[in-house]
Amino acid sequence: MVKARARFQARVAKSALISGITGQDGSYLAELLLSKGYTVFGLVRRLSVPNLGNLRPIAERVTLIDGDLMDQSSLNAAVQKAAPDEVYNLAAQSFVGTSFVQPVLTGEITGLGVLRILEAVRAHAPHARVYQASSSEMFGHVDREPQDEMTPFHPRSPYGVAKVYGYWACINYREAHGLFVANGILFNHESERRGFEFVTRKISHGVAMIHVGRAKTISLGNLEAKRDWGYAPEYVDMMWRMLQQDIPGDFVGATGEAHSVEEFAAAAFEVAGIEDWKKHVVVDEKNFRPAEVYNLRGNPAKAKRALGWEPRTKFHDLVRIMVEADIAGLQAGTIPVRPVS
Length: 341
Hints:
Layout: H1 2-12, E1 15-19, H2 24-35, E2 39-44, E3 62-66, H3 72-82, E4 86-89, H4 96-101, H5 103-124, E5 129-135, H6 158-177, E6 180-186, E7 189-190, H7 199-211, E8 218-220, E9 226-227, E10 230-231, H8 232-242, E11 250-253, E12 259-260, H9 261-271, E13 281-283, H10 301-307, H11 315-332
Parallel strand pairs: 1-2, 1-4, 2-3, 4-5, 5-6, 6-11, 7-10, 8-13
Antiparallel strand pairs: 9-12
Helix pairs in contact: 2-8, 3-5, 5-6, 7-9, 7-11, 9-11
């Protein structure tokens, strides 16, 4: 009886292919899927110095496949090798600021890269369910609040424009080719694994640097911009839930609360016990966007109703998690000392 059960479990075990597995979301998603018994494959770009730090706890349990969202043949080969039941496309040129400097590259990776993933799945794993990492940046210049699945898109950056392209490509492949494709329109979600170029990690790391005496100020841009910030490990659970549904759909993932960059900074300095935080912050115009997005706040009602998903980590708890992790990492020498300008 035990042997029969083991054979049954082996037969129904799922496999997943994750692009962007080395990033914040990809590493958390890989951990989640492994905990559910999945066989996990990760698509990684060939680099002279591999960036595998986020995968360190699970490195021996995932299979990495070389591939690039700009190279169709490598995506075809990756899908053939993984033979996935589920594909999570999390890879992108994901920094909004860089998209203004490298708009064509951003379009190739963040926009057309989605199309190449869809083509690889259509040709080599048409049964697979596909998750596309869409973004609240697609809303951009909003005319209503909060934003939900019916809010019109008005992107204000090449990154947002590319994400809109990917979003509609997914819907087209769902309608034209019958693929199971779901868009997760996720608002900002952060963690101690967030890249240093993102404003939340820039703040948490900068505050930690000041706390340990390695810096005196941090340089920021528009302090008035408001975002809906959640905790990344909770958002990858939503990704997984979306691919377990009977019918594919598109869902907003958000907390329903918006907080300004200034609020984030003030809360971070408070966690570190640093008073009069404004004397440690320099506002520099080089950090402003050419076209700003001022207020993004999502309505996750559909996700709560249909997926049973809702965020649990509150704003101040998120800030505390990030600041305390950066302080501990600097003190232990596991996080590099980096410029904070």
